[in-house]
Each structure stands twice: as structure tokens, then as C-alpha cells.
Amino acid sequence: MTLLLSASERRIFDLVWRQGPIARTDLVALSGMAGPSVTRLVRSLADRNLLEERVNRTGARGQPTRPVSIRPEGGRALGIYFSHHHVEMGMVDLGGRLINHDSRPIVDASPASLARLTNDFLSDMKSMADGPLLGIGLAVPGDFIDGARRLNAHAFFPALARQDALADYAANVGEPVSVENDAASAALGERLVGVAQTIDSFLFVHIGHGVGGGIFMNGRLVRGARGNAGMLGIQFPNDRPRPSGQDLFATLSAAGIAADDFVDLEALDLNSCPVLRGWIRRAGAQLRAQLSITARLLDPDAVVIGGRLPLPLLQALTVEVGGAGFCDEGVGLPIPRVLCSALGRRAGVVGAAALPIVRTLLDWREDEALPGLPATSHY
């Protein structure tokens, strides 16, 4: 679905997304627009079923208020996120809720196989979904060489590294497709509906098969010249122990514990598995040392720890990262908060679905982009 919203309409929608339910008078104050303009924009968005005004009669005398809020059923987006043996697919509505979710096995990540899984999922959702489909967000496990035309894909997904593989996929699904790397997508999910919803500047740490990152500064995703900003993994050489999911699987396997994908970690108890506890301590210490440097370079309000690990492991890792020694140079500088992802391992699929939502409804500052910096790749 194509929605041609003006920058002013996107600005109002963005404010309601973050602040709503919100009175029109507050929208006027926050947007800097005139009252009649805000009224006109709210009405236009309501006519498109994106916003709604509900009478609020509680707690006040006189005339009831009519706060403006997002209409969740006004649209939806599909997010796709990769694991070793499965592809996660999730439908997110405009309330930021994951309304449908499934994990489907995949033998390879070829464009044809991926398009077939996508079309099957969309077909299954037709009878139970509310609102028009805004598009598909693809969180790819890799980095950009030539935009989305060519990826440096993770070794588990060689088919994605073929020239124009994503363009072939998009041609076979028949819906608008937005592409971002998996770490940046997860960061976007946290910004829209997670712990960073009200944090304008933060560093997101993505523990997946590798180690990745996403950077938000002044409310915008920082992509870099080629879309690869936030490559935290280069701080941890592949030929040494590192704080990555693949390293965790190797550590567990060496101790005789069978686990080769993230779903296998769900069955492990941190309290009764000393190998797992040892990895958390070591990985936490590695991240704490390197993130102290990165955080001082970027000066974020917070560092958010997330990715594919189950939530108890993410929480334990967050405690380790934020422990004694994190950004503690002894000079009295403010220390960024270290937060655990509120979305846990769902951040990836929610973040992927956020891509078309941002592209269609929320990105109101495209005119401020620096020349030569590419936007998220779209088809």
C-alpha cells in the first residue's frame, strides 16, 4: 500500500505515536504549528483511518476532552528476521503490537524460497488481519557492499550474497519491500515500541549469530555512507572468543551441551548451567571494555543490550555490561544508562516490521538528510 503523506502529516503522526493519547493543544505546542493547521492535519489523518479522537470524560469537570491517538487497525506491516534454521515472520499493527507471529523452517535463503514463505504467510493472514498492508520489512543478516543490490551476508545465508538477490525476492512478493541489516532493524524496533521509545540518542547492541549494533542520534537512525554504521563486531576478532551467539554455541558444544540455534537456548537454565554463566561473565566483560570506548565516542544517553538471546540471558548480560568499570574513567563524566531490550528476541521481527511503518508514516525529516547519505533501501 502506498500512502503519500506530507512532511507535516508525518510530523503529527510521529508525535501522536510517541506522545499519544495527546490533546490537540499539546500537538500545537510540540509541533510549533498553528492550531488550525494541526486540526486540519489530524482530520486528514483520521480520514485515512490512521488517527482517532475518543471522548475522555474521566477525572475532569466541564467539557470532555478528545485526545488524539493512533488507530491500531489503520495499518499493518510484515517483518522478516533470520535464524540459522528458521525465518521469523511477524505482523505488527499501528499500535506497535505483534499481532501474528510464526517461525517457519527454511533450507536455504534463496529469493524463491523466501518469497514462497512470505506469500504463504500473507495468504494465511488474509482472513484474520485488520487494516491495509503498508509493506514488508526485511532484516538481513549481513552488511551492504553495493546498497541492497549486494550484501556481505552471514555465512549461514550464502544465497543472500548473490547480486540482486533481494531485488529478485521483492519482484516475487508483489508488495513494497524495505531492507535494513538486522542490528539496525532491531534498534529501530526498540526506538518505536521498546525501552528507547523516549530516548533520542542510544547505542543498540545486537547479539545474534555475530555482534552488531545500531546507532540512534537525535531521534534518527545513523546509517553511515553505505548503511553499515554500528559494526561493533570488528572490535572482536573472529579467531578469538567473542561475545557472539555463534561463539556461545561453540562454547556450549565444547562442554557437551547441544545447542546450535537460539531456540535451543530456551531450555537452558542460567542458574544450573555453569558453562552458560561463565560465558555471560566473559562476554559481559568483553562488551563492557569495548562499549566503554564506543559510548564515549558517540556520547549516547543509553546503551541497549538486545538481540537473539532469550530474555533471561539478555538481562544477565546487561547487568555484566553495566557493572563496575563501565565508562568509569574517574573524571566525573555522566555514565550512559545500560538497559536491557524490552522486546527481547522479538526485537528483530518487530524492528523489521517497523521499517515500512517508518518509511510510510513516520520519517518526516527526509529533507534534512545530508547529501550522499542513502536512505533505507526500498523496492
UniProtKB/TrEMBL annotation:
InterPro entries associated with the record: ATPase_NBD, ROK, WH-like_DNA-bd_sf, WH_DNA-bd_sf
Database matches in PANTHER family: GLUCOKINASE, ROK (REPRESSOR, ORF, KINASE) FAMILY
Name of the featured protein: ROK family transcriptional regulator
Species for this entry: Sphingomonas morindae
